[in-house]
Design a protein that fits this description.
Helices cover 11% and strands 47% of the residues. With 186 residues, it is mainly beta.
């Protein structure tokens, strides 16, 4: 059996390959499946109410896989990092989903600050002003088929966060919006 000689060129080549892989890994942006489009709009003036007139300075669209944006008390995605602005911004989400099993559903909206949530044009719940991260339960009876939800959120100042989950009837399990289940797909 012939052995491969161990020399400085082999060691240097291996180290160089490791460094190149580390650089490629570092410069490659994180990726998540694009399930929801979030239109995030920076307001020129302080926001204190979800229904106040908007005075938009700039907007951007961010694609996320699920609505779990309350990491470290910031409007932050676990993989993409901070995706909002420092403060005073609105987020608009209009998204289709399919109900696979008709019945009673509860949508759980967690927000720090305010939000308005509706399905197929019917408003289910809202919180209009500032608050710490708190979850509201929003019940609705849904038929099988295609539906659309609209979620409008605002962040004033300080801590931030937005989460959205759902559960079916007495199933007892809660899923994040974006996580398909045997009841709903996004």
């Amino acid at each position: 059996m012939k052995t491969i000689p161990f020399n400085r060129n082999i060691v240097f080549s291996v180290l160089l390959a490791i460094i190149v892989l580390a650089i490629i890994n570092r410069i490659t942006p994180p990726y998540v499946p694009a399930v929801f489009d979030l239109v995030i709009s920076k307001n020129r003036v302080s926001i204190t109410d979800i229904h106040q007139p908007r005075d938009i300075e700039m907007s951007k669209t961010v694609k996320v896989d699920r609505i779990d944006l309350a990491d470290k008390s910031r409007f932050r995605h676990h993989k993409l990092g901070d995706i909002g602005y420092a403060g005073d911004f609105f987020v608009d989400i209009n998204a289709p989903f399919t109900v696979k099993k008709a019945g009673d559903y509860v949508f759980y909206l967690g927000s720090d600050d305010g939000f308005v949530f509706s399905i197929d044009g019917q408003q289910l719940c809202e919180w209009t002003h500032d608050r710490p991260l708190t979850v509201n339960a929003c019940p609705i009876k849904l038929m099988e088929g295609k539906h659309t939800f609209k979620l409008v959120y605002f962040q004033g100042y300080g801590n931030a966060g937005l989460t959205m989950g759902y559960s079916y009837g007495n199933d007892g399990k809660q899923y994040f919006a974006g996580d398909d289940s045997r009841f709903i797909s996004f």
